[in-house]
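Quick one:
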Amino acid sequence: MKTFVAVVLAGVVAVAGIGVPRAWAESTIVLSRDDSTPRTLSIKSGGDVRFINSTGGKAQLWFQDGLRLFVEPGGSRVQFDRAGSYDYSVHVSETKAGAHNGEVVVD
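Output:
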């Protein structure tokens, strides 16, 4: 039993250790009904952006390339693998309707 517990704890520590640098590399955009904060975000290629829904309703991201994404209240993560400028619009429903634009710039 002690060996089993030691192996499980070692696995947890290894997974936590591997996950920490990725968590630090993640950027965040907070979506409100009227604006995105920050409105423009620059990241490195391969970087992650967590979009946080603080609208009080349902939020959708509409990217220029046709991708549609529902943003959960706890956040939805998107990885950007290619350099470029990714314009998006935020569409809010189930509260006072709202829409605004933002941009992710990937170096």
